[in-house]
Design a protein that fits this description.
The complex is a heterodimer. By secondary structure, chain A is an all-beta fold. Chain A is 0% helix and 59% strand. Chain A has a four-stranded antiparallel β-sheet, with no helix packed on it. In chain A, strands 7-13-12-9 form a four-stranded mixed β-sheet, with no helix packed on it. In chain A, strand 4 and strand 5 form a beta hairpin. Classes of the chains: A mainly beta, B alpha+beta. Chains A and B meet through strand 2, strand 3, strand 4, strand 5 and strand 13 of A and strand 2, strand 3 and strand 4 of B. Strand 2 of chain A pairs antiparallel with strand 4 of chain B.
Chain lengths: 172, 66
């Protein structure tokens, strides 16, 4: 997201504001933007924002859910979420968003404010591909929401049909 | 040098004056801002100040995030 002063008078000063939502990022992040001006000597230049993003929860094995199975074979994935802050951070409320009706999910408190388990299941009733976010509410930190990107793929089981039929001799 | 003086004399004789075109100047004080540490999910922001020491209006035409 950007906001900027479109015109700057001679001798004046203007500002460019660069905003970046760190959801889904972790570690050292560099985001840039290209600025175009009517200065003939400096028609284009880059501005760079650097930030060190720290996740509130350490999520294992990954900070996402990927359920992939064939039709009729239920599948589940369990994520463990461990609080990395000094203070307690409670996870409450689980919203399936656009995945509602396609998956089941349960948030289990292992140690209040410290450790949780997220269990996600599919009964794989029909073939489909869906993507979305599981949203949990956090309390105790300035960030109020924890989003987990989720992919659900249920494919049709392969049909084994013979390509050639070899006639068998009978009687001998 | 002789040629320059000759041209200047000719221009002066014709009543012509040479003027420089006004131009804007984009003077960016800092092109990189480190906002330090942020919690995942927070929105961070950085401000970049652009001075215009030129003698025409500086236009910022477009800012395209990468």
């Amino acid at each position: 997201m950007v906001a900027f002063d479109q015109t700057i008078p001679p001798g004046g000063r203007g500002k460019i504001e660069l905003k970046f939502n760190t959801a889904g990022y972790k570690g050292r992040i560099r985001k840039s933007a290209v600025v175009q001006t009517n200065d003939p000597e400096r028609a284009k230049f880059d501005i760079i924002l650097r930030v060190d993003v720290k996740p509130v929860f350490l999520i294992k094995p990954w900070a996402r859910v990927a359920l992939s199975t064939s039709q009729g074979k239920p599948s589940k994935q369990v994520l463990t979420l461990t609080n990395q802050m000094e203070q307690e951070v409670e996870l409450t409320g689980l919203d399936l968003g656009t995945l509602k009706g396609f998956i089941d999910a349960e948030l289990i408190t292992v140690e209040k404010g410290r450790a949780y388990e997220l269990v996600v299941r599919t009964d794989a009733a029909v073939p489909l591909t869906k993507h979305g976010f599981l949203k949990m509410v956090m309390s105790g930190v300035p960030v109020k929401e924890l989003d987990i990107f989720t992919t659900l793929v249920v494919w049709k089981p392969p049909q084994n049909t013979p390509k050639t039929v070899i006639p068998q001799k009978s009687g001998s | 040098m002789k040629r320059f003086i000759l041209v200047a004399v000719l221009l002066a004789g014709l009543g012509l004056t040479v003027t420089a075109t006004a131009a804007p100047v984009a003077d960016l004080k800092q092109n990189s801002v480190d906002v330090g540490q942020a919690l995942q999910g927070q929105t961070v922001e950085a401000l970049f100040w652009v001075d215009n020491p030129g003698d025409a209006v500086l236009e910022i035409i477009k800012v395209s995030p990468g």
